[in-house]
């Protein structure tokens, strides 16, 4: 499913925390949210893949989003949350520290990523959403797992 | 008979008389014996006759009994008659035997009569008795009667007559013998009287002549000689000195009298001669004595004067006039005596002064001693009182220490109890901690539930968003649920914080309670030490009480000694005062004598009393009380020794 575009209208985002930063993704990309269950390591998988878990009979690969975004490797606990997303037809679990909120924002409130950011950074962050003194980065899920995309394609 | 004593002569006469009396008595006794024998015979015969008469009556009774047998026709009558016959026969024989025994002289005749009587009853009447026994009917009786009258009854009369004749003859013989005896007795009495009268006359005559010859005649001769000597006839010879009886010893005594009278005459002559010579000597002495008397008067005069001066106390007087040579020694002796007396008096006077001053000193010292002894006694009383107070204080200390010990024991028990409470508190704290842990777990569960609810609410929101407009309402509900979940999570977080703070505080509390327990343990230890110390205090207080008791005893003994000393000092003071007054009297007496003045009259002035000894010394009792109090308080003893030396 592609990224929904509701220009000029309100869109709903799910905000979450990774490390000390807040991020958000479009709610339409999220299939479900669940608590952490220990993952079975997958030999030969990329470093940012923690492993796979059993999601109601289906094998769900888990991406360590912190590691992927360039932070330290997360040490998952029961408080960690897996956001099950559908990226380019591939269902992938994102390991985050915590889910903060469901935000309902206008399109205009989302500001573009500054030019100082590198391409890579811009490929991850689609926009910034200032909210209550914080800065929530809107992640573009397409580039989170590019390899997955290639492998899946 | 010259050599027999007078009592022997009298005994010879009396012995002759005794021989005569013995002869008469022998003759009278022999006659009495003869008469007695004759009378015995008569009495025997008299005793036999009644037995013979009784046997005669028994014989007659036998005859009667046989007659009864003859006329009896019944069996009973026969038996009675037979018993009566046997009884009569026995009595006849018994009386005959008794008569023979009573009069042995007539035994032969009596035995003959006995045999005769036995023949009549046993032989002559045997046939009649047999018939009598057989005859039980009057016819038989009449048949047997002639036999009885012819053979039996007639035989009794001759025997009875013979027995009566024998009784008669025996009575007559006794009467004749009695008459003969009376004649013999009369003759004996007359003969005895005659012999006694004649013999008495002979003995008296012999005794008269014998006493006259043996005793009276020599005494008369001696009496004549003594009369001559009394008249002064010293030439009369004293006869009878060769006799060895009482008269001889009297004659010897008279000879002694005679010799004494001769000696006395000689001595009287010598005394007269001596008297004459003494008279001459006395006259000669008289003249000499008169000459001496004059000289003596002069000497006496001088001595009287000297002694008069002496009695006036003038010891300087001397006899200057010379005496006669035999009295010169007297004068020099008098003068020497006066001189020695004067010297002595000088010395005595000087010494008396010394004694008086000494006595005054002693008296003063005695007064001081008395006063100080009284002070000492008073101080000792104060000491005793102070000791009593101290003893009471120490007792109080001991009892206080005991109370303190009890209180400390209580405190110890309380502290131990508190230790147990603290241990319980620690345990309770631990339990609180455990409960906190459990609460934390529960809170964790709640937190988990809130987390899961949040996740569910988020999923619900996601689903609502995907549902588009249709999910708007659901999204609101999901949002509300999420808010609730978040509030739950926050509340759980807060509770967790509180619980962790509580756990921390409980931990602190446990540590504090542990500290408290240790502090209590330390308190218990300290209290035990305090208990030991208090017990030691009590023991030492007890020892102090014992020591004080000993001190008290010692002080009491000291008190007694001081009392005795005080009494003694009183006596001493009285004695010294009397000594002082007596010394004054002595000095006055000696002052009456006049003696030559001497340079040696030393009169020592009484020493001035030591000023220090009159000062009342500080009371040793108070000092001691202070000292004991100080020693109980743990002060030094050095100060006390100074005070004792003062004491």
TL;DR?
The complex is a heterodimer of chains A (153) and B (647). Chain A has helices at 65-68, 119-124, 146-152; strands spanning 10-18, 21-26, 30-35, 49-55, 58-64, 81-87, 90-96, 98-106, 111-112, 125-131, 134-139.
Question: Please, could you describe this protein's structure?
Answer:
The complex is a heterodimer of chains A (153) and B (647). Chain A has 153 residues and is mainly beta. Chain A is built from three helices and eleven strands; from the N terminus they run E-E-E-E-E-H-E-E-E-E-H-E-E-H. The N terminus and C terminus of chain A are likely disordered. Chain B is flat. With 647 residues, chain B is mainly alpha-helical. The C terminus of chain B is likely disordered. In chain B, helix 1 packs antiparallel against helix 2. Classes of the chains: A mainly beta (153), B mainly alpha (647). The interface between A and B is medium-sized, with 15 and 14 residues.
How are the SSEs ordered, and which strands pair?
The complex is a heterodimer of chains A (153) and B (647).
Chain A: E1 10-18, E2 21-26, E3 30-35, E4 49-55, E5 58-64, H1 65-68, E6 81-87, E7 90-96, E8 98-106, E9 111-112, H2 119-124, E10 125-131, E11 134-139, H3 146-152
Parallel strand pairs in A: 2-11, 5-7
Antiparallel strand pairs in A: 1-2, 1-8, 3-6, 4-5, 6-7, 9-10, 10-11
Chain B: H1 6-71, H2 75-102, H3 107-124, H4 126-134, H5 138-231, H6 246-311, H7 325-467, H8 472-591, H9 611-614, H10 620-632, H11 638-646
Helix pairs in contact in B: 1-2, 1-4, 1-5, 2-3, 3-5, 4-5, 5-6, 6-7, 7-8, 7-10, 10-11
